[in-house]
Design goal:
The chain has 424 residues and is low in regular secondary structure. It contains five helices and seven strands; from the N terminus they run H-H-H-E-E-H-E-H-E-E-E-E.
Length: 424
């Protein structure tokens, strides 16, 4: 009080504090040396020189003032979870909003309220969030971001669970097929129609895709389902396909024909029957001279008697006339092939034995103009008559003894009919 009176008096009298100190015989006031509150810090360093508890070494307390003169107020550890809000218990007297739970950074004033039985926003009420403002709290609202979705709302035909009952468009699937009209059911009152229905060939859009009896050919075999394909996922099955031994109804005739013994010989195709049109042809059948592969070994009439054949050394000379292909097949059945002539003397021998136009093995069936023997080897010897072979595409097989000229070869149509000579 005395100091205040002195200062006031000095001001009133126009005399400075320093002059007053001089007049009173006291040293002049110096903030750099004077410690008014005797807290160990001169007034120039002390942010509150009249409070012994406030100075640069002071202990920061929760009291709304800067106790340690660092320019910060109540910067003590009152925010344990570092969420920006002080603990309302540790520092209850501080101004502003307090943290109701200082061990959880997700809990503080202004935090978003979630459905977890915790008062996240510190307003004293648990789980009171309503993000979309529809009146239904977060814990009850199945979509708290859409104000039109809440318990008790009218269910609309929109593919959403409007009333939060875990059902979508309930009340709109009138035929019970799992789809409402808004979900693509083109016939909402007929359970045989819907996005999951199978398309039938009945002139209507069964699967609601906007197409009627769509002619998709899924297996790209040229025949769509509605045109008779019995399996549009298997390109080997369609009307007219060849029936093979694969366990599939290849020709779409409602049966697997490969298991049928059509000729009644006790064998089906899959059991080795080589000709289901002939009961005389089956594995183990007796070979007869009937133009059929009776024993299903790949050869027809492989008996010398069938072709009037006789032997002469390594040659089989057959007097019955037939095509080049059947002659070669017969020779193979005998264990050989149409004769292959490798020299002039051999050519003369065969020509003398047959004494008439006869099939030999020379042919250009594979490549026109490239003459080979039945085993594919090229001719090492030939005896073409003058002007032969021709360039005719139809004349691909050779005979010897043309016109009675012994040993002369000419090329003729392979479907012609001549005797033949085999070489074993």
């Amino acid at each position: 009080m005395w100091l205040a009176w002195l200062v006031f008096g000095c001001i009133e009298s126009g005399v400075s504090a320093t002059e007053g100190d001089k007049a009173e015989g006291r040293p002049p006031y110096d903030a750099t040396t004077h410690d008014a509150d005797h807290d160990g810090f001169v007034d120039a360093e002390d942010c509150k020189p009249d409070d012994v508890n406030v100075h640069p070494d002071g202990v920061e307390r929760c009291n709304g003032q800067d106790d340690d003169c660092d320019g910060k107020v109540d910067e003590g550890d009152y925010d344990a979870d570092d969420d920006g809000y002080d603990d309302q218990v540790a520092c209850y007297g501080l101004p502003g909003e307090m943290d109701c739970r200082d061990d959880d950074a997700s809990v503080h004033p202004g935090a978003a309220e979630t459905c977890d039985y915790v008062d996240e926003d510190c307003n004293g009420t648990i789980d009171d969030g309503d993000l979309d403002g529809d009146g239904a709290l977060t814990c009850d609202d199945c979509d708290d971001l859409d104000a039109f979705i809440l318990p008790g709302a009218a269910e609309a035909c929109d593919g959403l669970d409007n009333d939060c009952d875990d059902l979508v468009d309930d009340g709109w699937d009138f035929d019970g097929d799992g789809y409402s009209e808004c979900q693509g059911d083109c016939e909402p009152e007929d359970g045989d129609f819907g996005p999951d229905a199978d398309e039938a060939c009945d002139g209507v859009d069964n699967d609601c895709d906007g197409r009627v009896d769509e002619d998709d050919d899924l297996d790209a075999d040229g025949v769509p389902t509605c045109e008779g394909d019995c399996d549009d996922t298997d390109a080997s099955a369609f009307p007219g396909a060849e029936e093979v031994c694969d366990g599939v109804d290849n020709d779409c005739d409602a049966s697997s024909d490969e298991a049928v013994d059509a000729d009644g010989d006790g064998y089906s195709l899959c059991l080795g029957d080589c000709d289901e049109a002939s009961s005389a042809a089956f594995p183990g059948g007796v070979e007869t001279c009937d133009g059929v592969d009776n024993d299903c070994n790949g050869y027809t009439d492989e008996s010398y008697a069938c072709y009037g054949c006789t032997t002469s050394g390594s040659y089989v000379l057959c007097s019955s006339s037939t095509t080049w292909a059947l002659a070669e097949n017969a020779c193979e059945g005998f264990g050989g092939a149409l004769v292959r002539l490798s020299s002039a003397s051999e050519n003369d021998d065969v020509a003398s034995l047959t004494a008439r136009p006869t099939w030999i093995g020379a042919n250009d069936i594979g490549t026109e103009g490239v003459w080979v023997w039945p085993d594919g080897s090229t001719l090492g010897f030939d005896s073409w008559a003058s002007g032969y072979p021709t360039s005719s595409d139809a004349a691909d097989c050779a005979i010897t003894n043309d016109g009675g000229r012994r040993g002369d070869w000419i090329d003729v149509d392979c479907t012609g009919s001549y005797p033949f000579a085999c070489e074993l």
